Amino acid sequence: MSIIFNIGYGHFLVLAAVLFLIGVGGVLIRRNALIILMSVELMLNAANMTLLTFSRMWGDISAHTFALIVIAVAAAEAAVGLAIVVAVFRGRRNVDVDRLTTLRH
Amino acid sequence: MRTRIPILIAAAALALVATGAAGALAPSIAVAQNVVIQPGQPGVVVQQVQGAGARPTGAPTAAPSPTPRAEAAASDPRLNPKAPPHLDEIESTGKGTALLFWAFALAAVGGALFVVTRRNLIAAVMGMVGSFLGIAAVYMMLYASFLSVIQMLVYAGAIMVLFVFVIMILNRPEDEPVAPSGRAGQAIGSLAMVYLVFRLGMLLIDVKAPESAMAPPAPTVAIVAVRTPEGACDVARCEAAGGRCSVTGPNQPQLCRVLHEWGTVKSVGTDLFGPGAFPFEAISILLLVAVVGAIAIARPLHEDPKPGADAADAARSEHA
Predict the structure, then answer these.
(1) Model confidence at B39, in pLDDT bands (50, 70, 90)?
(2) Count of beta carbons in the 10 Å neighbourhood of residue A3
């Protein structure tokens, strides 16, 4: 019962780990580039949650600044990633990452 | 028609999470902001309730007086002037807070599972938004109120719109969403996944939290500048600033801390424009480069060649 009603830092860390793992699973098993980008965003959010938990744990506010910068980088990454998806789609009419093998040969 | 159902579920979950985050967490956070330290009285925390939620306004209980109101205030643990600073109602130890945590964690994890399992891309984006709103509520429970709002604005607002736009541009159903990469690939992937779970579990087991669950340290912001020339905490100046000198743990230096400023715009901004000023400026350059790069990448390479253009030039751009 205490693990349900006594929320501690561990709960937040485990929640972040679960979100990160779901993100990793999405990157590994899905083939659509858009879903992969969304999963990357999920992983970044999980990392942010870990940062904020440790920030609260040790009373250091600078992790909030770091998380803010991570959010900005994630926004930039989403913009560039989606631009690449649009460019790829324009060339080959699909965004399936398993069919993007031109650089392999 | 069948594909509408997950969208509806996602929208309902989204609305639930949004109202829960706004309605349930805002009052407790608002109460938290009204706890102040009286300068000049070290160790005595005076709580002033000023129009927070449904509570009567303007009931300063600095000095207990023999009026019925003051007696009622003294019996209320929230208004007890002798209460230690970290035992007020904002600590995340109550059962209601715990249930809220589970609800928001469920929203976050459920939305994330929605993202990786849906075939319909719009449904996946809606699951992502629900997940991000749940994460924002969890940030609020970590006293990161500013970052919680930023999370809602940037992720659930801007990035979601970006994704929806791109999905509308592409507008193509998937034929085979999950990668069948052969037995060897699946074995390697599963092994990598098991290894990752194992390493994450080991890391989480090794985390040494401060002893009691969510109580220490009280929501604080450290003011490093208030120091004597020897590097110790300057008690007089710190108390003049409304804080007091304290440590966060064993073998930690004493810092001047102001209670209940944790995670607000003021405290994050003070850090962002103090020690974090250079990363902040670097981020502006990064965003500029990213926007220019995104436009350069997504722009069509050869669009409507001019009628009088050179034929060889047109052929070359056609080839590119």
Answers:
(1) very low
(2) 10
Note whether B293 and A83 are within 8 A (CB): yes
Tokens linked to B106: 């469920």
Beta-carbon separation of A80 and B297 below 8 A:
yes
DSSP state letters, B253-306: --EEEEET-TTSHHHHHHHHTTTTHHHHHHHHHHHHHHHHHHHHHHS-SS-S--
Tens digit of pLDDT for each residue in A84-100? 999 888 888 878 887 88
Pick from B80, B45, B32: nearest CA to B59:
B80
Residue A99 touches chain B, beta carbons under 8 Å: no
Residue B65 CA from chain centroid, whole number: 42
Question: Is A28 in a helix, a strand, or coil?
Answer: helix
pLDDT digits (tens, 9 = 90+) for A47-56: 999 999 888 8
Global confidence as pTM: 0.64
Q: Which residues in chain A have Cβ-Cβ distances shorter than 8 Å to B280?
A: 65, 69
CB contact under 8 A, B144 and A74: no
CA–CA min distance B261, chain A (Å): 10
Cα separation of B312 and B310, whole Å? 6
Within 8 A of B217 by CB-CB distance, chain A residues are: 59
Answer whether B37's CB lies under 8 Å from B151's CB.
no
Range name among A48-62, B53-67, B212-226 with the lowest pLDDT average: B53-67
Residues B102, A14, B271, B289, CA torsion sign = negative
Is the predicted ipTM greater than 0.85, yes or no? yes
Residue B217, preceding peptide bond in cis (omega within 30° of 0): yes
